[in-house]
Design a protein that fits this description.
Blueprint (H helix, E strand, L loop, with lengths): L9 E5 L3 H12 L5 E5 L3 H12 L8 E6 L11 E2 H5 L3 E4 L11 H19 L7 E4 L4 H12 L6 E3 L14 E6 L7 E9 L2 E2 L4 H5 L2 H20 L4 H15 L4 E9 L4 E10 L2 E5 L6 H19 L15
Parallel strand pairs: 1-2, 1-5, 2-3, 3-4, 5-6, 6-7
Antiparallel strand pairs: 8-9, 9-10, 11-12, 12-13
The structure holds nicotinamide-adenine-dinucleotide.
Length: about 325
């Protein structure tokens, strides 16, 4: 029998650090796909992660390979290349520095923009139908930059939003949206939040107990608590990414808050969107109070100003960039 090329969708995970390996593990445990490629500039780490992950494949019988850039030291140990990652159906971008204690997401930007640029150059050309899931932070700005750099249409770049995208507080009770950012500058849309279908604002306890402030600060500070205690977050984001990959591959058309480019705001920001096999579909703009809309506009303005600083970015070839 002539061996047939695998038709199984391929998932490439760029960055084999804490988040990248947790994403791969979550995907394996949930059998979301059967063909994975892992690329990291540190080829030794990528190789080690692949060996470790392979020991878990008895659960889902997936194939996992490490990819290397031809000039990198580990190239001889793998047959896959970074360019093969560009031909994957879903590309999960986790390569990037993580937030240091006390560092804001914006401070990460310069460091991680260089990594994004490097990765997109090395994996190019990107398959025209690929969906790029951006996880590295600051995710909104990097999504905006990836849009300019990758050449993919906006519907095929998203991400991440986060495990706290629906606030995740009073977990089973409060159904509320966070838009804009998923960190320091998030805008919680309390005006359309509900508890069992009833507007949250109609609950007397809500105002009396200062619940808004408590919930807002709990969600904003949560990530900093995790970083303070264990150095990095991994499991929440890994679970979210595996769920998104599943939604894309199974065309589930779920509605989730994700970072996307919005024409209305002319910016990449977190909004509820439909996610299916073609990436992001319809954006569902939430009803917001005037104050919430103002906060979001302020966030968008700041976000646009940061993106403008990167206007020199013109294409996927690194030689096109001005330093
Ligand atoms: N969106 C979210 O909700 C969310 C949650 C957690 C972490 N993050 C972000 O994910 C990113 C990764 O976090 P982490 O804890 O895994 O960090 P990490 O340091 O453990 O891993 C990052 C990996 O990227 C690799 N890398 C660096 N430069 C590279 C390059 N040019 N090409 C290929 N690989 C390269 C490193 O070698 C390293 O293995 C960070 O930016 C972090 O802030 C986002």
């Amino acid at each position: 029998m002539t061996p047939q090329a695998s038709q199984a969708p391929k998932v490439a995970i760029i960055g084999a650090g804490i988040v990248g390996s947790a994403v791969a593990f979550a995907c394996l445990m949930r059998s979301v796909a059967s063909d994975f490629l892992i690329y990291d500039i540190d080829t030794s780490v990528a190789h080690g992660q692949v060996l470790d992950l392979e020991d878990a494949t008895f659960i889902s019988s997936a194939t996992i390979a490490s990819a290397a850039y031809p000039s990198s030291p580990g190239y001889s140990t793998t047959t896959a290349t970074a360019q093969d990652c560009g031909q994957a159906d879903i590309i999960v971008m986790t390569a990037g520095h993580r937030q240091a204690p006390g560092e804001s997401r914006d401070e990460l930007l310069h460091r991680n923009e260089l990594i994004l640029r490097d990765v997109l150059t090395k994996i190019a050309p990107i398959k025209s139908t690929a969906i790029l899931l951006m996880v590295a932070n600051p995710v909104n700005i990097l999504t905006c930059l990836a849009q300019k750099l990758s050449g993919l249409p906006p519907s095929q770049k998203t991400f991440l939003t986060s495990s706290n995208g629906d606030l995740g507080v009073a977990e089973n009770c409060v159904n509320a949206l966070v838009v804009g950012d998923h960190g320091d500058k998030q805008v919680a849309v309390w005006s359309s939040a509900t508890v069992a279908g009833q507007p949250l604002t109609t609950f007397a306890e809500f105002e009396q107990m200062n619940t808004q402030a408590e919930i807002a600060s709990a969600t904003t500070n949560r990530i900093y608590d995790i970083i303070e205690h264990k150095g990095a977050s991994a499991y929440g984001i890994a679970a979210v990414v595996s769920e998104l990959i599943l939604a894309i591959l199974a065309n589930k058309r779920i509605v989730v808050p994700l970072t996307v480019y919005s024409d209305r705001y002319d910016a990449c920001l977190s909004l509820p969107v439909m996610l299916g096999s073609r990436g992001v579909g319809q954006i569902f703009y939430p009803q917001m109070s005037t104050k919430e809309e103002q906060s979001l506009q302020e966030y968008v303005k700041a976000n646009q100003a940061i993106c403008e600083r990167y206007q020199h970015i013109r294409g996927t070839n690194s030689t096109e960039y001005e330093e």
